[in-house]
TrEMBL record:
Span of domain N-acetyltransferase: 14-182
Record carries keyword Ribosomal protein: no
Name this polypeptide is given: Protein N-acetyltransferase, RimJ/RimL family
Pfam family, one: Acetyltransf_3
C-alpha cells in the first residue's frame, strides 16, 4: 500500500485514489440520492458549489498536512467506475483517525464498504501508525453500524447532540465505535486467519 500522489491502495475489488477538482460532478451525483443522504441530511443533496468551494479544497489541502490520512475516491478496480468514497479523517493532531464511507446505493449489500473500511483500518495502524481509529453514526443507522463492526470497531458510547434541524431518528442519539492500537494485532490476526480459511 502506498500514497504516491494518486492511488493510495488497492483491494481485491477497489482502488482508492486521491480526489481532484474534476470529481465535483461525481460527488454531486452521489449525494443526490436521498437514500444515500438519509442519515446525514435527511435526504437533502449537496450542491456543486459546496463541493467546489468548500469540500474539495479542504480535502485536497488535507493530503499534504496529514500524509496517509484523508478522503479518497473509491473506484471499481477493474472498470474504474466511481463508486463513492472512504476516509480516514485526521483527529487528535493526526494521532487518531475517523473512519468514514459513502457509496452509491447500487453498490450496497456487496461488502464493498467493509472491504474499503478494513483496508483503511489496516493502513491506519500498519502504515500511518495512529493510536485509534473511530467512527460515529446515528444509532438508527444499522447498515453503517454493521460496517463499523465488520471493520473491527467496537461500541464505545451513545450520545446526544442538539441540532437546529433534527432529522428522523435523531432522538435515539449517535453512537461512537473504536479500535485502539493495542487491540489491532488480535483483529489483524483474526482477519488474516479468516482469509486463509477462505482460500
Amino acid at each position: 500500500m502506498r500514497d504516491d500522489g494518486g492511488v493510495l491502495l488497492e483491494t481485491a475489488r477497489l482502488t482508492l485514489r486521491r480526489f481532484t477538482m474534476d470529481d465535483v460532478d461525481r460527488l454531486v451525483a452521489l449525494d443526490a440520492d436521498p437514500e444515500v443522504m438519509r442519515f446525514l441530511t435527511g435526504g437533502a443533496p449537496t450542491s456543486a458549489r459546496t463541493f467546489r468551494d468548500e469540500v474539495l479544497p479542504r480535502v485536497l489541502a488535507q493530503y499534504a498536512r496529514h500524509p496517509g490520512l484523508g478522503r479518497w475516491a473509491t473506484l471499481d478496480r477493474f472498470t474504474g467506475e466511481f463508486l463513492g468514497w472512504h476516509s480516514l479523517d485526521p483527529s487528535g493532531d493526526g494521532a487518531e483517525a475517523e473512519l468514514g464511507y459513502r457509496l452509491r446505493r447500487a453498490t450496497w449489500g456487496h461488502g464493498l464498504a467493509t472491504e474499503g473500511a478494513r483496508a483503511l483500518v489496516r493502513h491506519a495502524f500498519d502504515t500511518v501508525g495512529v493510536r485509534r481509529v473511530w467512527a460515529q453514526t446515528m444509532a438508527v443507522n444499522d447498515r453503517s453500524r454493521a460496517v463499523m463492526a465488520r471493520a473491527g470497531l467496537r461500541y464505545v458510547r451513545t450520545f446526544h447532540l442538539t441540532f437546529d434541524d433534527p432529522i428522523p431518528g435523531t432522538e435515539h442519539g449517535e453512537v461512537e465505535c473504536e479500535l485502539r492500537r493495542d487491540a489491532w494485532p488480535a483483529t489483524r490476526q483474526e482477519w488474516d486467519a479468516a482469509a486463509l480459511r477462505a482460500r
